[in-house]
Amino acid sequence: MSGSIPFYQKHHLHYDRGYRSKETQSKVSQYQASSRYSASGSASAATRSRGLNVSSHSGLEESRLSPSPKRAKPTYLAVDKDNQIIGYVVPIFRGSQEFATGLSDTEEARVRDTAAYMARRDLFTSGLEMERSELISRKETMRESAERITLNKRIHEHEEHFKRMNEDSLMHAPEFVIKPRSHTVWEKQCVRLHCTVSGWPDPRVVWYKNNVALDPLANPGKYKIESRYSVHSLEINKCDFDDTAQYRVSAMNSQGELSAFASVVVKRFKGEMDEFLPAPRRAITEVGPVSEYGITFQTHIVDKFGVSFGREGETMSLGCTVIIYPALHRYQPEVEWYRDDVLLSPSKWTHMHWSGDRATLTLTHLNKEDEGLYTLRVTTKSGYETYSAYVFVRDADAEVEGAPAAPLDVRCLDANKDYIIVAWKQPAVDGGSSILGYFVDRCEVGTTHWIQCNDTPVKFARFPVTGLVEGRSYIFRVRAVNKSGISRPSRVSEPVAAMDPADRARMRGTSAPWTGQIIVTEEEPAEGIVPSKPCDLQVTEATKNYVVLSWKPPGEKGLEGVMYYVEKCVSGTDSWQRVNTEIPVKSPRFALFDLAEGKAYRFRVRCCNSAGVGEPSDPTEATTVGDKLDIPSAPGKVIPTRNTDTSVVVSWEASCNAKELVGYYIEGSIVGSNVWEPCNNKPVNVTRFICHGLITGEKYVFRVRAVNAAGISQFSQESEAVEVKAAIASPAPPYGITVLECVRDSMVLAWKQPTFIGGADITGYFVDYREVIDGVPGKWHEANIKAVSERAYRVSDLKENKKYQFQVRAANMAGVGIPSLPSNTFLCEEWTIAVPGPPHDLQIREARNDSLVLLWKPPVYQGRDPVNGFYVDIKEADAPEEAWRGVNTKALEKTYTKIKDLKEGEKYVFRVRAQNKAGVGKVSDVTEPVPALTKPGTKEIVVDVDDDGVISLNFECGNMTPDSKFVWSKNYEDITDTSRLTTETKGTKSKVVFNRPGEEDIGVYSCLVTHTDGASSSYTLSEEELKRLLEISHDHKFPIIPLKSDLAVELLEKGRVRFWLQAEKISNNGKVDYVFNDNVVSQGEKYKMNFDKNTGVIEMTMESLTPADEGTYTFQMQDGKATNQSSLVLIGDVFKQLQKESEFQRKEYFRKQGPHFIEYLSWEVTPECCVVLKCKVGNMKKETSALWHKDRHQIKVDEHLGFAEGVLKLEIAQISKKDAGVYEVILKDDRGQDTSTLNLTDQGFKDLMNEVFSVIANSSTPLKITSTDEGIRLYTFVSYYNDLLQVTWHYKDSAIAFSDRIKSGVVGEQLWLQITEPTEKDMGKYAIEFYDGKGGLRRTVDLSGQAFDDAFAEFQRLKAAAIAERNRARVAGGLPDVVTIQEGKALNLTCNISGNPVPEVTWLKNDREITSDEHCILKFESGKFASFTITGVNTSDSGKYSILVKNKYGTESGDFTVSVFIPEEAGGKKK
Q: Is pTM beyond 0.85 here?
């Protein structure tokens, strides 16, 4: 391996200068020394090309970072296709039409200066001549610039003058006043072509490159076209070799068109720089910035991508934010991406995007070829910035279990008409068994049909593919195979055409720049000549599968192209055999297959054309068929080195005598696991590699294998185990040196801890001091030889009233760091102030979103009196000094405080002042800004009491490093009394155990984790909290099994007795003892026990209770250390009641085996006041009968009930006293009988009747008022009236004493109260009260006011009507309706007449009044009797008669009809 270090190692974050070899360091120093020279040379060349200060970079090839690769030296030799020198190449650049004879004088001088500069550069002439050349160039540039400005001004004035004239007379075709000039520039420089054009109307100007119009929008940032005041310019940014061309500017208006031409030649440096060294960072020189625009750009790459891991087939994006200052509108830097030092171009595999402030690279479909070191390079006019990180690509899962991973880096090494050699790299993973070989597939571009090229696997990582069609393009892929199966195919190769290399070169030549090259070659052969023999035949490659021959064409070829026949013979014989008998070979290369492995062959070639076959070439030396290339030997000693907490640097000795080495594969394994994982899936061609993605804290061993085309070597020996943790380094310098106290000959200093401690704890500090006299510092002296652990130290042996400076160095196990910057100058004089000095060593702990803890140390200088308190000040970090405010108004006694009510995300700074009796002293140094923010993953101290009652404080940290430690403190001071506390730490957890918890342990306990970003937490153990924890501890030491319910008793079916309780939680190891009267009882005939551990239910059942079972029952439980018991006392009346209930339940069970009563006989009163006797029965069948009895007499029989469960009823419609008695229902069938009795006598009957009365009362209507001719009546209706109903009438809440005037009664369902001849004294509230044996029911009505008046008026009216009705004239009776009488008979009718006064009587016949006469005698006697007599009736007396009586009260009539018949007629009718 070469001594140079690859690009990615020098740019990787984990590589430092210490890793470079001496040879590399020497090259670096030489390069740095020459970088300033290169910069100035570039600048001078730029100034000669244009009148601006231009910063340029050396050339950049497409595949390498610039300017690190070596540049091919420019050559002017003409060679043929066989690389034979045939003459010189003379580059010719045409100028503009107007300067066809050559360049202008100024341009010629510039070219001469440039040539002289190049000559001086090549001959390493002195820098003095270079400075003189630069001075001349600057003068020329200034002169040209002044001439151009003057000319532009004259042209402008001239145009303005003629514009005021007639436009028609001024119109003319475009004319070039100043034509563009040709330029020769260095690569990466900028060039500007400019011209001045006149014409009217104003011509339109277009720029062309090789007759193709330039569009600045199509190439943003590349071209810039401007037109101002008839001056037109084309600026080409960062010229490269492709910008070498002829440029034409065309001016056109309505009068015509005119063009001018200029050439641009871009040259490259000769490449004297080391190709492995990065380009120098451009710096601002003493003369000012080297930017083209006079601005120095500052580039910062932030928000960077880190080491990334992906898997084949996935998509990955890498991105960085780029900040360029100052930010110029439309300025675009050059953004480039590299992989392993090779420039990447956009393709289907890689997409690049620049958003203006962020560069992104997207790998669309990861393959192992994409693994490597990725570098982002951002180039501005002032230099460039780079950032690199490694990307690892893991193999995709195999399609067949145990199959190897896919090969990688498939490429075509040699393409001819007849065959193409395909090469690849072996995969790192073989699937667990050796790879047997590889299959090569081809696919013609434009199709999707893949064809396998070899029938048997080839082990060599190169293979010549034959059978191709000339002129067609192909892509290839490779698959690995082992005994388990075939791998996934590799990524396809780039397309390659099957054609002669010379034809391919001619095709590429068509795209060369326009500048022609005149090459003189030999004359073409004449027709009809047999070609001569080929020359330089040799075996270029030999494996056990094939042999590749190559040769040079003959000098005499004939007119048409030649072809070749290849012949072979076994070594030691002279029997030549033509290999390609049918088709001659067109290319001077050929691959032979089917050779016998181990045999030696010789080969020769003949040329042929239409004229014949030529003589054979000289035969080759004997070649034995077999692999000439050996598998490399195993690499040497492997040495792992700590790097970061997730990576290890692995270096090894290169394989000895390895030929055509492709690279190395590294594998790692956790010690003891015996599982090896690849660290890289793409071979690395260096002997040093960083293995990423390792587990922090684990120990790893590594081994390495070498790879070439022949195969993969054996593994190297395993390395020594290395623990994955960050490498340590010496700490950074401390800072913030201040004076805490000063006496006559000593000073106490304090300082702040370094921001970077080097990955290991700081072991101490060293202080140096020097005296400063008149502002001139002296020599440094050591203040302490032994390191001090505190960040404060008293420097002694100083001189009073002298000035001193101090510096401090920090030390750790890696060594002593560099010293801090010298402190301010301090005067050594004794302090005599009365107030204290400043507190020091301020520390921030436990930062949260709304709070943090501030710690400090008291001042060293106490002042006149001891310090008795502290004040803390706070302000926002970006607030002015006036924003300082106090945190506390009362002085703090302790040297710590918790600051609350902070604003989340705001940054704060703090300072502390001490006070004594004299006042408040000096302020401390201000802390660094700290945000009030809870960091992700922050955890708090958790108090815990274990099963043994041990109280502990626990803290866990998730972002520890291997060197992190837990530091516990009480009241933020080191814990010295270890007898009370025990600290235990395991992994990421630590806890403090209280050995004997007591009042002495009250305080604030905090835990700090070192080597983290400040992970800390605290817990306040107050008196109340300690009391609570002690109670919990006692419960844990003497645990009790918690119970959901205590021991209880209940009755089950058949009268069985169940004792039970339920525990909240009990394990499978729990057990129970059942105790009765202090004796343990066990499972048996009398006692049945059950313990359900899932539910915690414990129970014991007994079939029945006897007097011997009276006593105390206890369940005793035990579960590990936890115990509990519960007892139940069953004695006396409690036991007897339970025993009685048990016996009842037992009898009930047996009763219910036959027909039985579910609900016993009871009564119910319906709303209709019907009494229903009912009972609910069960377990019935068809044969079951129900017998109803009253007073032992059967009254009803229900047979064949036909239901299993139902209701039996007996209705009593109108209950009375005769219905009282004892009712009984008997259920009977063959299974037995059951009886239900209901006693409806005495109280039972009273209760029933009370319910009847209640129903009657509730059915009563509201009390109403009515009037009669006798007086006023109050009444209510009920739905049913019973003679036993007790009703009481009330007047003004007093029972009414009934008399002749006030009476009550019942008429049907109406209950009434009659007030005869009412007076005003009868006015008031009346009520009727129904008695139901309970509260009764009362209905009320108010007989007063209008109600009384209306009722009394109605009474008067009815009374008058009654009197009139009694005294009016009436016909009481005695008159028939019809009287039939025989003619001649006497008729006498009498009726009673009543009325007072005596009424007048009038008789009517046929509605006509009649009077008394002899024939009809009418009488009215005694005022009561009226008579009607006809002495002898005749037919004329027939008719309708009426009596009409009338007095002052009324009139009434009585009607009758008299029918007189003749006897003869009567007889005739009878007959």
A: no
